[in-house]
Amino acid sequence: MLRAKKFARKTKSGRVLTVSREHYLRDDIGCSIQGCATCTVNPDTLEPTSIILPDTNVILHQLDVLEHQAIKNVIICSTVLDEVKHRSLAAYNRVRAMLSDKKRHFYVYSNEHSKHTYVEQNKGESPNDRNDRAIRVCVKWYNDHIKQVMPTAKDAKVILLTNDAANLKLATADGGIPGYTVHEYVRRFVDDPAVKDLLAYPSDTFSKVMAREDELSEPFDAYLNETAIQQGIKGGVYLQGVFQASRENPNEGFVRVRGRDDAVLVIGRDMNRAVQGDVVALSLLPKAEWKAPLDVVEKRGANVLVTSTKLEDEDDDAVVSEPKPTGKIVGIVRRRWRPYCGVLVDARPTDTHVLFSAQDERIPYVRIQSSQTAELIGQQIVVAIDAWPSKSRYPVGHFVRRLGPIGDRETETEVVLLEHDVPYEAFSQAVLDCLPSETWTCSDAPDSLAKRRDLRHLNICSVDPPGCTDIDDALHARELDNGNYEIGVHIADVTYFVRPGSALDKEAAKRGTTVYLADRRIDMVPGLLSSNLCSLRGGEERFAFSCVWEITKEAEIVSTEFFKSIIKSKSAMMYSEAQMRIDDKSDNSELTQSLRVLNSLAKKLRRRRIERGALMLASTEVRFSMDNETNDPVDMKIKEQYETNSMVEEFMLLANVSTAEHIFRHFPQCAVLRRHPSPPPANFEPLLKAAHVAGVELSTASSKELAVSLDRAAPEGKPYLRTLLRMLATRCMMQAVYFSSGTVPQTEFKHYGLASPIYTHFTSPIRRYADVLVHRLLAASIGADITYPDLLDKDKVSSVCDGLNIRNRMAQYAARASTELQCCVYFKGRPTAATGYVTRVRKNAVQVLVPTFGVEGPVYFDPIDSSKTAPTLKFDAEQLTLDVTPADGGQATTFKVFDEVQVLIQVDESDAQRRRIVLKLMNPAVAGVSVSAPKDVDVEPGLADEGAIVEDITGEQQQQQQQQQQGGAGPGGDAMHTDEDGGDEDEDDGAVAQEDAKDVARKSGGAGSTPGSARKGADAKKKGKAAKAKKQSTTPKKQDKAAKRRASKKKGKNSTKRSKRSYSQE
Amino acid sequence: MPEYISVEGLREDGRRANELRRVEANVGMFPHADGSAYFQQGDTKVVAIVNGPKQGVGKAGDAGKVVCDFEMAAFSTTQRRKPLRLDRKNAELGSKIASTFESAIMTDLYPRSQIEISVQVLQADGGVLAVAINAVTLALMDAGVAMTDFVCACTASVIDGTNVLDINHYEASAQGPELTIAVLPSSSTIVMAEMKSRVHGDLYAGLQDLAIVGGTTLLPLLKKAVHDRTRAMLPCLGPAA
């Protein structure tokens, strides 16, 4: 049967077109009930029992209920599914996940294409009413169908679930279709009491959920209706943008509007219930009402302000900064709510209405109702927001699930992973089935072996950070007869194992990158590959993808060649080890000679690169030493840098650039490249201003000028100044991104940080999916492998790149968050005095960076004794100074940017649920504010301190099989900072380029086969089979913030004795 | 991103991946032409007229010549378009159709002659070339031109990794590779193949097979249209001798 679908559509140019499409109705859409003999095409998904059919709103608002395992046998009709997809892609994806779970018995009934259930829209009927009717018809058909084809199945029936009273009434009137509201259904038919807590509150009962104290005397302004918003946006009356709440001040936010350079400021009530990430419509206020951001750091807890009086107060001390475009949110285009991890605030066990504070500090408190408050106190939980009634101070939501006790290592790590959307579940059986056997060797693949060049005789070696198990690069150098050198970079041949389209490939693409947390590593590919078969271990034969150059003594490239090879690394060294070999004059072995050649060429390459304008940005790298037993950090120090670090880095950069040129030449449309855009001038403003105050003039016209002017910055009595400037410069950078070469004009390919016209990632396929794609392209271009359709489709490649960019950013943030967590553990019970530098001056605080620990945070001037009055602060926005006059009228102390200060680093435990690092001022002394160093400063923590993190021994034993390793590194979060001196691997917070340096650094987390760990292994063996531990290392990535570290650890399965040891670099 | 094929395997209009659109055919409705046919696949509607064989124009050859004049009605697409005096696109389609039928018509039987085909597209909703070829086949049969076989044409494309048959205009907007193939069904000989974009070699074989199946499936429908027409003409021949 055929129905024509006719509708009008407006084109971009404004013309109205009549579109007509065919709409076929079928008679072969099966009911899918087991035992139905009539339906021919029948997947048999549903059991002949009580089956529910929810409407769209039930799915959108009660998804947590539907996701509960107690709910089975659900029909989703396609009308509903389409609406869900249209309104929330996130909800749609969750529905799809349930549909694919066979145990849940979910089924999509394509009612829109079934001749039995298709309904035409009646005259005067709204599309919503028509859809409701379609759903009712569908339920009715099902029930009639059941009666007809299986009259014996008495229990079988289909129940309509809807919270729409009108719809329900029509259903029951309309031929007695069984229907209930979700609440009623759950109450009557679901035995599991846990399901009840998952119910979201229907909008007509908000008043019950809202605690009385949340009620506002003056409600928020009502939102405009959808049509008014759409028309307003089209007509230019309103702007559409993404709301970004301020991390520092819950009363402020910004809306980023496409096509506007500056974000629009939204303050206080004008935020009008927008939550971080929502797409909003806003109206700009008249210029006279524009305000300046407060530039104060607001302590958390003063969440969501609702009166605007406070703002007036602030205006006393003269508007210092320029007013910015300010707006008022008039409507929400799309909510971007997701489930949030967090904890309850100040809850008492008997409370039924409790406040929830999300981990993400940009999310306001959420009011939830729970019958099990007592069990949720002290737990990390997940909560979903349901709505934000205009009368309520807080949004209302419902409890979703419990993660575990606050402070527990596993729980906290899960929070980090969930909050950053890192896929961390164990690899599925389908993925593991793609792996070769554990005993696989190169000789098991004679076909491939025959096509590879045999480089096993060469003196190839790898140089990595300590503890690295996923070694993806190795090097060699030898002198040629003509006096030139042959230099080879050999990269693990991951694509030999990861075949396109396999489950393994899909999983790796989904994960996008290996995530290095402070105490573990979330692998992109299973451990068998990442730590063994792909890893270029010393003394073992491995497949590799080689890039070999002929290079003159002056480091000019004569020729480049790519080929697949088989290699046998002579040695897997650590940086320090390689450095020792190079420095040891008595060592003249061939391997050492070639290291020296590599080192001297690297210096020349590096010099040339710097001349071209590559940026040298600063970062300090912090490494934690871990206690084997508790996995707690026992030491934290800056990581040493060796010449060999930059030696490896230099050749990796060279290999990446050579590869980029090569694949772009062969695949101009679909090459996977990486670019780092020049920062817009506005990004440099804070840097220039701070530098100006410090008496340094910087030029930011190009990366070259910036590099030169940074070099020239003359430190006058402030030796640290230049490094500080470099670190600030790092923060001005844009994020480097992957892209498909067909989607961006060639003029925009350049990599700003590296001053290279073209760049890509080739050297770390074990831990980055982008490199896997690059390997495939490269292999196809030299005829070593086949291509496949998706690889050559620039749009598909482009969307994969977009996904990778998001994953990478999230991985960085997750690493930072994890580092922060580790930092808290380290400083807990170990207040430490340290020298820091002021990096930013605010109205009520100064931002201080402690390079030794990579910790950065605000220093407030609160009186120690809270009953005393706070000192008077006077902020000078021009000179970036803050005068602090003690309340008792003593001498004022002036803080300015780049000042050196002494601070005490400690963990604020006043809020037991949310420990965080705080910096307290020690010197210069301000009466009533500064603290003096406590006597127990910097002591080794006793056992008592370890109580904070409850170690889960069972958990660790389970993990021991997968080689556990930790990568270090992440760039710091707001509270911390890591920097590396002189690396050019700049990644910054946003990151600059990620260069290989970092890369190299990153993998340092690997536990493993380095001599260091081998030795430890030997030690451990002495103790019986017991535990061995591992070590860790940190690595650097430089980022503007943050510390990193990694540690790895392995334990014997039966370990009963465990050794406590900490390792430093070796 | 729009979903062209649901997870349940239904396309936007309700067909499964390997299903053709509905087909309607009408042969011989214009008495003044030597042969005429109307053919419709989904919402793509085409009229084909055949005149000839008649005396050839210009240099005469031993074999008959096939010429084709292809036109799209101004109202055939959602957005009305101005007819151009010289439309290269139409000219190209016309010559493609002409050369396709030179492979099927026994041109040796028509020396120094010319067969004129004209194609009018009344409504275009994807697969215009394929539908036009099917229409022309019927018109040629109606004109009594000797052919070795029917010529059946069909399109196939790849959308989101699935091979789909007979795509409509909406599905063409997925920008998949669109293959149009014309076959002689009794021998499965391909007489015309047109690919609109680059396609990876791995995909081609599957596409071609699907399009051939599509064309072969059309054969009985075309045959029936010709039979119906012939049956209707029988009374004109007078009583059987």
TrEMBL record, chain A:
Domain PIN per the UniProt entry, residue ranges: 50-169
Renumbered residue ranges of the record's region Disordered: 954-1066
Cofactor: Mg(2+)
Composition-biased stretches (Low complexity): 957-966
Primary location recorded for the protein, binned into one broad class: cytoplasm
Molecular functions (GO terms): 3'-5'-RNA exonuclease activity; endonuclease activity; enzyme binding; RNA binding
Localisation per UniProt entry: Cytoplasm; Nucleus
Domain RNB: 452-784
Protein's UniProt keywords contain Hydrolase: yes
Keywords: Cytoplasm, Exonuclease, Exosome, Hydrolase, Nuclease, Nucleus, RNA-binding, rRNA processing
Family, similarity comment: Belongs to the RNR ribonuclease family.
Name of protein: Ribosomal RNA-processing protein 44
Species of origin: Salpingoeca rosetta (strain ATCC 50818 / BSB-021)
TrEMBL record, chain B:
A biological process from GO: U4 snRNA 3'-end processing
Sequence ranges assigned to domain Exoribonuclease phosphorolytic in this UniProt record: 19-145, 149-200
Top-level taxon of the source organism: Eukaryota
Entry GO terms, CC: cytoplasmic exosome (RNase complex); nuclear exosome (RNase complex); nucleolus
Record keywords: Cytoplasm, Exosome
A Pfam family assignment: RNase_PH_C
Principal subcellular localisation of the protein: cytoplasm
Any one GO molecular function term: RNA binding
Alphabetized InterPro entries for the sequence: ExoRNase_PH_dom1 (IPR001247), ExoRNase_PH_dom2 (IPR015847), ExoRNase_PH_dom2_sf (IPR036345), PNPase/RNase_PH_dom_sf (IPR027408), Ribosomal_Su5_D2-typ_SF (IPR020568), RNase_PH (IPR050080)
Family: Belongs to the RNase PH family.
Name assigned to this protein: Uncharacterized protein
Organism of derivation: Salpingoeca rosetta (strain ATCC 50818 / BSB-021)
